[in-house]
Amino acid sequence: MNPIYVVDDESAICITIEGILQDEGYTVVTCSDAKNLFDKILDQPPSLVLLDIWLPGINGMEVLKEFKERHPSIPVIMMSGHAGIESAVNSIKLGAYDFLEKPLHLEVLLDKVEGALARQNPQIPTSSSDTRLEIVRPGVTLHKDSVSLVESDHPQRTLKKNVVLNGTGLLSGRNTGVILSPLDVNAGIIFQSLDGQTIPGYITALENFSKTVSTEAFTANSTVLSAGNRRVRTVEHLMAVLHLVGITNVLIKTDGEIPNIDGSADDFCKLIREAGIEDQSERTKQVVIREKMGVGHEDINEKHLYVEPYNGLEVQMRVKYPAPIFEQTYTFNPEHQSFDMEIAPARTFNTFENIEMAQKLGRVGSGYLNAHIILHDGKVINTELRYPDEFVRHKILDLLGDLYLLGVPIVGRFTANMTSHGYNQALVKQIYSTLFTE
């Protein structure tokens, strides 16, 4: 795909947008004015242009008019922090695909970018801030025999007593807490708000679950469950621990967001050990993968996630990011390795620039700074790594948490390349749909 051009005379805006889009896998070219834009596109035409209205010399509206005369098929999204609805309407009349108001909102920016590219390239399905999600791998037709739900040899499990953990909400920045309590057999994993609203810890409670594939919007940076007008955010680390210790029935009371201590699952492991685990009288079920299935295109340069038949559970993960991460791979098998020692302590990570912008946009709280490995200028700037490959291990932690949205273990080998929560959730939904859709 050709690069996305960002045209803005404010270098900070260009740098911020460039970083966001590059994180999503796009190639970006930045330009400070119209002349710079028209000079650069002679060598490499864009797939999309993000164009500021207020530019030095010739203004953005004039640039838009001239650009659409030369390149009528290339979409343009206009940007402005001062223009009103009249400017937005005029830009659409001049041929702009869409209009963005500053300050830019991360998910809105990414949704509009992908929408513009999808219109230009209909083979690219529309998704949310996660990039170009393909629900079924090309050439694979799934059927009921691809996956089975069977009774396992393992008992259902709950906790022996109530336990409490306090911390800070990663996204809200507020002090919050969680209370875990035992539940009877076949109750499942249940979240509960302080006013008593229950939210199943299950794939059907995932935000936007009921939307059609063409408009589906999986959340890329956390896993959010909802019911009625209540939701609970950042459930993935706790869910990973419940998954690996085999807790199938538990009540989780919280105020809208699971507390985040240091960006890992370490404290949830300690919490479960404090509560103790009780085997129950009935056996749990398990999902057995019979045929390979997945999301994304199976290419080392593209995000993808697949699961195939295997006698047990295994996750093979690969990531590749700029310095200091570079390429990392890791394989985790709970029969041979300790989840508590090898995966749970791995912390989430992000760049300082992304965190700073998200805070300015009001999308995350101060907890973000205290619960991340923060990267800047090719270095980790706020902590010492717990493992040289802590980054890929954390991706496995997130995947293990999202997989437990099925409520039971999955028997299969997972192969993941550069995945985020969106891909994890999409694969879980695919497995669920194969099991239960007629």
Care to describe what's here?
- The longest helix has 16 residues, at 421-436.
- The model is unreliable at 122-141 and 211-219 (pLDDT under 50).
- 44% of the residues are buried.
- The strands form 5 sheets. Strands 6, 15, 16, 17, 18, 19 and 23 form a 7-stranded mixed β-sheet that branches. A 6-stranded mixed β-sheet has the order 10-9-13-8-7-14.
- β3 (48-52), α3 and β4 (76-80) form a beta-alpha-beta unit.
- It has 438 residues and is an alpha/beta fold.
- It has helices spanning 11-23, 34-40, 60-70, 85-93, 106-120, 236-245, 266-275, 339-342, 352-360, 367-370, 390-403, 421-436, and strands at residues 4-7, 28-31, 48-52, 76-80, 98-101, 147-159, 163-169, 175-182, 189-192, 198-200, 225-227, 230-232, 250-254, 259-260, 277-289, 293-296, 304-308, 313-321, 326-332, 349-351, 373-376, 379-380, 410-417.
Strand content is 25-35%
CATH topology of the largest domain: lpxc deacetylase, domain 1
Overall CATH class of the largest domain: Alpha Beta
For the terminal residues, how far apart are their CA atoms? 37 Å
The main pleated sheet reads as: 7 strands, mixed
Q: Which structural class is indicated by helix and strand composition?
A: alpha/beta
| Shape verdict | elongated
The low-pLDDT segments are 122-141, 211-219
- Helix count from the secondary structure assignment: 12
The CATH homologous superfamily of the largest domain is named: lpxc deacetylase, domain 2
State the total count of DSSP E strands.
23
The helix fraction, in percent, is 25-40%
Q: In the CATH hierarchy, what is the architecture of the largest domain at level 2? A: 2-Layer Sandwich
Q: Number of domains in the coordinates?
A: 2
